[in-house]
Specification:
The chain is α+β, with helices and mostly antiparallel strands. Helices cover 43% and strands 13% of the residues. The chain contains seven helices and six strands; from the N terminus they run αααβαββαββααβ. InterPro entries: Glutaredoxin, Thioredoxin-like_sf.
Length: 176
C-alpha cells in the first residue's frame, strides 16, 4: 500500500521537507573526493612535465625536482633499503639547504622523497634517472644534481664519518 499523499498548507509541508542545502552535500562530497584523488597522486600535475604533444616527460620532471629540492631521494615505499636510507637521512640528520637569499636561515628542511612505485610514471622516471646517474636501483640519493649513492653507500659514509662532510661540501647545512 502506498503512503498517503501529504495534505496541508505549504508552510506545513516545508517543515517536513529537508532544507535545500542538503541537496548540495553530494556535490560537495564529489568535489572533495576528486580533489583528494588529485592530491594523492605523487605526480604534481604541472604542465611543464608534458611535452608539447601532451605526453609525460621524465626529463622535465627530473630537472624540476633537482631545481626545486637540494636533496632528492628516489625510493620505493616497500623497499627495506630505501627505508634504511630515508631513516638515516631524515631521522638521524637534520638538513638545511642554506637558501642563497637567506644565509642565516635555521629552517630545517627534510630531503624530498619520490616514491617511484606510487608515481604514475615511476618506471619511466626511474629509467631516465638511471640514464643520468648510472644507478638503476633504489634508493638513489641525489644531492644538488649528483647521485651520492644508495643505501649501503649512505650507511657506509655515515659509519666512516664522511657523510656529513660530503653533504656540507655540497652546500647543505647538516646537524646530527
Amino acid at each position: 500500500m502506498c503512503s498517503p499523499r501529504p495534505t496541508g498548507t505549504l508552510s506545513q509541508l516545508s517543515s517536513t521537507m529537508p532544507p535545500r542545502s542538503i541537496y548540495f552535500i553530494p556535490i560537495i562530497l564529489c568535489a572533495l573526493y576528486f580533489s583528494l584523488m588529485l592530491f594523492q597522486s605523487n605526480v604534481p600535475s604541472f604542465p611543464h612535465f608534458l611535452t608539447r604533444h601532451g605526453e609525460y616527460s621524465p626529463l622535465h620532471e627530473y630537472k624540476y625536482l633537482l631545481k626545486s629540492h637540494p636533496m632528492v631521494i628516489f625510493s620505493k615505499s616497500y623497499c627495506p633499503y630505501s627505508t634504511k636510507a630515508k631513516d638515516l637521512l631524515v631521522k638521524t640528520l637534520s638538513i638545511n639547504p642554506g637558501h642563497p637569499r637567506n644565509k642565516s636561515s635555521n629552517l630545517i628542511v627534510e630531503p624530498h622523497v619520490v616514491e617511484l612505485n606510487l608515481h604514475s610514471h615511476g618506471s619511466e622516471l626511474q629509467g631516465y634517472i638511471a640514464s643520468q646517474t648510472g644507478r638503476k636501483t633504489v634508493p638513489n640519493v641525489v644531492v644538488k644534481g649528483v647521485s651520492i649513492g644508495g643505501s649501503d653507500d649512505i650507511a657506509g659514509m655515515f659509519d666512516q664519518g664522511t657523510l656529513v662532510k660530503k653533504l656540507q661540501d655540497s652546500g647543505l647545512r647538516v646537524v646530527q
